[in-house]
Specification:
It is a single chain. With about 575 residues, this protein is mostly beta strands. Helices cover about 10% and strands about 45% of the residues. The protein has three helices and 44 strands. It has a five-stranded antiparallel β-sheet with strand order 3-2-1-6-7, with no helix packed on it. A hairpin with a 4-residue loop joins β13 and β14. It is rod-shaped and about 210 Å long.
Length: about 575
């Protein structure tokens, strides 16, 4: 301001700090209304700023204009003015540049930046740091729900202008304590700067899930179908870690959505009821609720090991959930829905070995299904036996009984079961009925044949039921019954028989599946020696012809005839003499 001097300036020069090199100058020696003066700027020192000068009558004023003040503009400035007549004059002014505080930055105890929410476990203390910069050094004020909070530490750095404050907040055991409270870090450094600047975060206390619930919206599941299984997790403010399984098989998670109520989550998983699983065993197994302590430290560890830990031993559908910050508490819900599946059918023939006509036959239709079978149909040669009534066939649900089976009842048998889900046919069984008149006699022989007795002995491969064989002995010519004997084994000794007689021997059994065996034999004459053993090995119709006796008689006559002739010739010779 040159009003007091009353002389016109000719040169105005500005210096920075104690430097002798000017940064700005304005030459006014040729100043006029049309010539505002010559401006000069030291480009090596600064590239901005301008000296302003004006005259209004006797009032002459000048100032240095800095368009955008920065921190580097601060310091001492010297203004030198040369006059037309008045001596040179120097003035000093100190420019104090105020740099407002930066937006406070919040970090947790591990140095991670805190965003809108900071999570905390129950019963622990939160350590929070607030950092800002400014010139002069800013001051930091903590507020919790609008009330001041005393910091536990305060650090400053004059060179960088950084200030850091630490506060600790204790969260009690109750979930509601400080949950949702608003924490504010406020920074300010001068009344001339802008309003104090603040950063806010909300405290959320993390607790284990209040409830884990599998939505039981299906009365049952059908085997071979795909379903969406829903698990509700309530009371968790962050995305929970969830594991849904069925009989220890992990189900793929389709979606995890937070409900509008906040803190409640709906998790959907895909459940494929494969036809290959053992549903019969599943439907009869016991199911129990599962609760486990995981003993993990943080979310990453929890996530890395969630498969190993959350795989339980539960049978049925199980949903397990935990808060990421409380992985040591897993809450679960188990549901064992009934699995409906169609019949698995197998036809079994209970008879062992070959089946002969006259035997009793037992079939069993084994059915595994849930719900249990409602109807069972029986088929022979694809004909429903319900509509082809036979007197010796009896059907009782899953059993078929044939009393005294006949050869004409052979064929392929099957059963078909239905339980309302589906129907299924069994494996076929081909019933083969053999002729019951097969023999178990492997060898017969006649021995000790004399004029009054005969021995008969047959080899037998069957069991030894008492009185199962009957020998009937007839005279061949008169058909007179000579003996009727019941024995345990096919062996017989006949005595007191008339000599030189032909006999017919019938061997039969009490069993209906045994052919009658017929043999013919004879007794010798009184003077004949015992006959040799005659073996009969044909197990079919056995006949011993009297040819052996005739041949023996002829041989006996031929052996006696020479003796008789010699005796007669000699007798005649004696009479003649």
């Amino acid at each position: 301001n040159f009003e007091k001097i009353g002389d016109r300036p000719t040169l105005i020069i500005w210096y920075r700090k104690d430097q002798n090199i000017p940064i700005y100058s304005l030459d006014l020696r040729k100043y006029s209304d049309s010539n505002p003066g010559l401006h000069w700027t030291n480009q090596n020192r600064t590239d901005r700023g301008r000296i302003h000068y004006e005259e209004r009558g006797k009032v002459r004023m000048s100032h240095l204009f800095l368009p955008t003040v920065t921190r580097e503009d601060g310091g001492k400035y010297r203004c030198r003015v040369d006059y037309m007549q008045y001596p040179t004059k120097n003035s000093w002014v100190k420019l104090k540049v105020i740099v407002g505080p930066t937006k406070p930055l919040l970090r947790d105890g591990k140095g991670s930046v805190i965003e809108d929410t900071i999570l905390s476990k129950q019963g622990v203390s939160l350590t929070i740091f607030c950092q800002t910069k400014g010139i002069p050094l800013p001051s930091i004020l903590w507020k919790l729900e609008g009330k001041p909070v005393q910091p536990v530490s305060y650090h400053t750095d004059q060179i960088s202008g950084t200030v850091q404050s630490e506060v600790r907040i204790s969260v009690k055991e109750t979930v509601a304590d400080k949950d949702g409270s608003l924490l504010e870090c406020q920074a300010s450094n001068s009344d001339r700067s802008s309003e104090p600047i603040s950063t806010f975060t909300r405290l959320r206390t993390i607790a284990p899930p209040e409830r884990v619930h599998l939505v039981r919206d299906q009365p049952y599941f059908k085997a071979g179908q795909r379903y969406n299984v829903t698990c509700l997790v309530t009371g968790v403010d962050v995305k929970p870690s969830v594991y849904i399984s069925f009989n220890d098989y992990r189900l793929p998670i389709i979606s995890i959505k937070e409900l509008e109520s906040g803190g409640d989550w709906r998790i959907a998983a895909e459940f494929h009821t494969s036809k290959d699983l053992d549903w019969e065993t599943y439907n009869t197994n016991h199911v129990y609720n599962y609760f486990s302590d995981i003993n993990m430290n943080d979310l990453k560890t929890f996530t890395d090991h969630v498969d190993d830990v959350m795989e339980g031993g539960s049978r049925g559908l199980t949903c397990r959930a935990a808060s990421p910050l409380l992985p040591d508490l897993v809450l679960s819900d188990t549901w064992k829905p009934p699995i409906h599946y169609g019949p698995h059918v197998q036809l079994v023939l209970e008879n062992q070995g070959k089946i002969q006509d006259g035997d009793d036959v037992y079939f069993v239709c084994q059915v595994s299904s849930f719900p249990p079978f409602q109807t069972i149909q029986w088929f022979r040669q694809n004909v429903d036996l319900e509509y082809k009534v036979e007197k010796n066939i009896f059907i009782e649900a899953d059993r078929l009984y044939i009393r005294g089976v006949k050869r004409e009842q052979e064929g392929t048998f099957m059963c078909r079961a239905s339980n309302g889900i589906t129907s299924q046919k069994s494996n076929p069984i081909n019933l083969v009925v053999t002729d019951s008149r097969s023999l178990d006699i492997t060898d017969c022989k006649i021995s000790n044949q004399s004029s009054t007795s005969i021995s008969i002995d047959c080899a037998w491969s069957g069991d030894s039921t008492a009185n199962q064989f009957i020998f009937e002995v007839y005279k061949s010519e008169s058909k007179e019954l000579v003996a009727n004997v019941s024995v345990d084994y096919p062996r017989l000794i006949l005595s007191s028989l008339p000599p030189s007689t032909d006999f017919t021997v019938n061997l039969r059994s009490m069993r209906p599946s045994f052919y009658q065996i017929t043999m013919e034999t004879f007794t010798l004459r009184a003077e004949e020696p015992l006959a040799t053993v005659t073996r009969i090995s044909n197990p079919g119709y056995i006949r011993l012809l009297p040819l052996v006796g005739i041949l023996l008689g002829i041989l006996l006559v031929l052996s006696i005839l020479p003796v008789t002739v010699h005796f007669l010739v000699r007798r005649r010779h004696l009479r003649g003499s």
